């Protein structure tokens, strides 16, 4: 049912449907990547917390690079923010998909449909993708 609705929307409003699809997929992929990054950072922090309990110099987690430096460590609030989802980034990615990526791809493939013509669809599809 949802697939039929999507196909109907695609035929009635192709650009808007593609823009919405692109925005949703790009924001979903960014959310997945951010969650992966957060889990990886937590693992790194746990490893370095073990090291920090020993007699090594203080650690600095600025810019995602946990290294021993002489500058002061970030505040607990900064560290806490470092391990949370960045919704502003996800929104920016969604806007890029909606406003930039989808309209350019839509226009590009319309142009390619007019320029590239083959008797065989099996040849036409790869040529249009390149």
Topology of helices and strands:
Layout: H1 2-12, H2 14-52, E1 59-60, E2 67-68, H3 76-82, H4 87-115, H5 121-129
Antiparallel strand pairs: 1-2
Helix pairs in contact: 1-2, 2-4
In short:
73% of the residues lie in helices and 3% in strands.
Q: What is the approximate shape?
A: elongated
Query: Roughly what is the average pLDDT, rounded to an integer?
Result: 82
In terms of quaternary structure, the protein is single chain
Distance between the termini: 33 Å
Strand content: under 5%
How are helices and strands ordered from N to C?
HHEEHHH
- Order of strands across the widest beta sheet? 1-2
Report the helical percentage.
Answer: over 70%
- Kindly provide the radius of gyration, computed on alpha-carbon positions and rounded to a whole number of angstroms: 23 Å
Largest sheet features = 2 strands, antiparallel
What class do helices, strands and sheet pairing give? mainly alpha
SS element count, helices = 5
* Stretches with pLDDT under 50, minimum 5 residues: none
E-strand count: 2
């Amino acid at each position: 049912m949802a697939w039929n609705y999507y196909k109907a929307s695609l035929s009635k409003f192709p650009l808007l449907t593609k823009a919405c699809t692109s925005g949703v997929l790009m924001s979903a992929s960014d959310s997945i990547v951010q969650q992966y990054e957060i889990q990886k950072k937590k693992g790194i922090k746990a490893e370095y917390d073990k090291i920090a309990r020993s007699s090594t110099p203080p650690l600095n987690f600025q810019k995602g690079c946990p290294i021993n430096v002489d500058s002061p460590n970030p505040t607990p609030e900064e560290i806490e923010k470092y391990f949370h989802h960045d919704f502003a980034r996800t929104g920016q990615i969604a806007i890029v998909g909606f406003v930039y990526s989808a309209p350019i791809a839509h226009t590009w493939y319309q142009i390619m449909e007019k320029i590239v013509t083959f008797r065989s669809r099996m040849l036409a599809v790869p040529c249009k993708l390149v």
